[in-house]
Amino acid sequence: MLDTLEQAPDATVHREALTELVLELTRSGFEAYFLQPLKLARAGFILEQTASLGLAGTQQMMAPVIRQMIGRMNGPQLVSVCSSIRQFML
Q1: Backbone φ, ψ for residue 43 (5° rounding)
Q2: CB-hemisphere CA count at 13 Å for 7?
Q3: Where in the chain are the domains?
Q4: What is the pLDDT of residues 5-33, one digit of tens each?
Q5: DSSP result, 25-53
Q6: How many angstroms separate the Cα of 62 from the Cα of each of 8, 18, 29, 37, 87?
Q7: pLDDT over threshold 90, residue 44
Q8: Helices 15-30 and 45-71, interaxial angle, to 10°?
Q9: Residues 75-86, buried b or exposed e (16+ Cβ, 10 A)?
């Protein structure tokens, strides 16, 4: 997806796909950095459920903001976001 956007004559046509990727990375990041450590620490069902509920609420609040931000970006800005994502992949 990143290659497609970066090589597109008009990167803005891929805004929605980039938005979905950013939202999925956000979900995965929350899982990896918050929920998995709680499970590994055996923090307990109540604490895990509380964290899960809090993170779900956070994602619901963040999603429209992310959609709006990416929806307003121009081609070079979108390519820059792709570059930032690639940095996380290293």
Answers
A1: -70, -20
A2: 4
A3: 29-90
A4: 999 999 999 999 999 999 999 999 999 99
A5: HHHHHHIIIIIHHHHHTT--HHHHHHHHH
A6: 27, 15, 13, 22, 22
A7: yes
A8: 160
A9: beebbebbeeee
Task: Give backbone dihedrals phi and psi of 74, rounded to 5 degrees, phi first.
Answer: -90, 180
Three-class SS state of 1: coil
Tokens 């950095």 found at: 33
Helix (H) or strand (E) holding 20: helix 15-30
In which residue are the tokens 């809090």 written?
54
Position of tokens 């899982």? Answer: 31
Residue 43: what pLDDT? 95
Q: Are 80 and 12 in contact (CB under 8 A)?
A: no
Q: How many residues does the chain have?
A: 90
> What is the rounded distance in angstroms from the CA atom of residue 55 to the CA atom of residue 34?
9
Q: What's the rounded Cα separation, in Å, for the pair 5 and 50?
A: 37
